[in-house]
Design a protein that fits this description.
It is a single chain. Helices cover 46% and strands 15% of the residues. The protein is built from 16 helices and 14 strands. Helix 3 packs antiparallel against helix 4.
Length: 465
């Protein structure tokens, strides 16, 4: 981490995301994605736009030698990736890997790339035109950074508070416009807060971290641990919004446990239909996985006579539009959602936070499941094992607080101004039936609570503030 510029005060907004941002910045990724773009520029695609071939001042034998090294490097890269996908990842989409596995895998890539870099340096020394020389050196620097990332991952010490993991990715390029399977290696710090505490905060006299979701049930300890701010003063300020009159929390007690998947999806689909019919404005349906998002979206389209399609489905009969995350760009989707007379948007991940739709355009937020991270995620699994090794209870020290913070972000999509009003519907019975449910309920602003649809109907029948 570089040393930040000298200053007296550091102010970080949306501070609940700082540890994830730090993990992304401090972590390292090595994949075919960056490399393939360099290869395509150097060797061209289908015999066209070949940078190496265009260097007429370089002897033809030397140019052909560089192109041959690139072809060999690509061939070895693809063979190694195929082996890794088959033998290491297998049926998994992402897994943690040992230091030895990472070293073996990455060394297959480092050596051929380094050979290409050495050959390119010899070429660059002979170039006379500054612009061409600068372009060639730019690609050398990019390859150097790719090799440095690979070495950084392979050189990490076993047992350090870092996770080495690998995932299958689909890479699209000019050579493969429809995509080709590949693998990406990652090194992710397990304690980004500790690094922030050592490398960032000491450079400032004061640090102010601001967010609407830093506390869990009024307790800041989890956020303080995550963000590396144990020795801090905390302050909770009252909201300017009248939640008591403008927000209704709907938590039905008659839905099955999400563990009973078939019954759960069937009944939740019916409940979503009923809630959308009652709402006067737009609706967000927030899901915790893309598989459940697709399943609920398709069920909704079918029940409302909407043809599932890329982009938007609209019913002239009920004057309702349905959107599915991923079908069109996010910003365009939000614009069309706001302009529709009555719209339902099915979203995951990015729609839980950082989305602002004030006014009548959004009056119902449906949270289909409590947002626990998938236990199959290798980073979460490593954090759990790390916590357990230190004598902690990972479910209550990591998984519940993480989910509560995400839950609060989801609820926060609804009331964005003093005149907004609406209903947040939690269609996960665990919030009522499990002991940890009270942690989620305690994170909701003081408001009215309902368990029956007729109460939702009464709420929406009242005049808008």
């Amino acid at each position: 981490m570089g040393v930040p510029p000298a200053s007296d005060i550091l102010i970080l907004d949306e501070a609940h995301n700082i540890d994830q941002t730090a993990s992304d910045c401090l972590g390292t990724e090595f994949s075919h994605r960056a490399l393939v773009r360099v290869w395509e520029t150097l060797r061209g695609v289908e015999g066209r736009n070949c940078l190496i071939g265009s260097l007429q001042e370089i002897p033809i034998e030397q140019r052909l030698g560089v192109l041959d090294l690139i072809r060999k490097a690509e061939k070895q890269f693809h063979e190694s990736i195929d082996w890794f996908l088959r033998e290491i990842l297998g049926d998994s989409s992402r897994i943690a890997v040992s230091q030895d596995t990472a070293v073996v895998g990455l060394n297959h890539f480092i050596e051929p790339i380094s050979e290409v870099v050495a050959a390119l340096r010899l070429v660059a020394r002979k170039l006379l035109h500054d612009e061409v020389k600068k372009e060639c050196e730019g690609y050398i620097n990019r390859l150097d950074r790719i090799v440095a990332d690979a070495k950084m991952i392979s050189d990490l010490q076993e047992g350090a508070p870092w996770l080495l993991w690998c995932e299958e990715v689909m890479i699209r390029s000019r050579s493969h416009p429809t995509g080709v399977r590949s693998a990406a290696f990652h090194a992710t710090p397990l304690e980004p807060g500790r690094i922030l505490n050592e490398k960032l905060y000491p450079h400032f006299e004061s640090s102010i971290l601001v967010s609407a979701t830093l506390s869990t049930g009024g307790d800041f300890s989890y956020a303080q641990e995550r963000l590396g701010t144990a020795k801090t003063e905390t302050l909770t300020l009252p909201s300017p919004f009248d939640y008591q009159n403008h927000l209704l929390l709907y938590t039905p007690d008659d839905l099955p446990d999400p563990v009973d998947a078939d019954s759960y999806f069937s009944q939740v689909s019916v409940r979503i239909d009923a809630l959308v019919d009652l709402a006067e404005g737009g609706t967000f349906v927030l899901c915790t996985s893309y598989s459940s998002l697709n399943k609920l979206y398709e069920s909704f389209c079918q029940s409302h006579g909407l043809p599932p399609s890329t982009g938007k489905s609209r019913s002239s009969k009920k004057q309702i539009s349905a959107f599915r995350q991923g079908d069109i760009p996010k910003e365009r989707m939000l614009e069309e959602f706001k302009s529709a007379k009555k719209a339902v948007l099915f979203g995951a991940a990015t729609f839980w936070q950082g989305v602002d739709v004030p006014g009548r355009d959004l009056e119902l937020v449906i949270i289909t499941r409590l947002p626990f991270q998938s236990p199959d995620d290798p980073v979460l699994d490593a954090r759990i094992r790390h916590c357990r090794a230190r004598g902690g209870n990972p479910f209550f020290h990591i998984q519940v607080p993480d989910a509560v913070m995400q839950f609060r972000q989801g609820i926060g999509r609804l009331i964005r101004s003093k005149t907004d009003r609406g209903v947040v519907a939690i269609l996960d019975s665990r919030i009522r039936k499990k002991g940890y449910g009270k942690e989620f309920l305690a994170s909701v602003p003081p408001c009215r609570v309902a368990s029956h649809l007729d109460e939702v109907q009464q709420f929406f029948s009242k005049p808008h503030p």
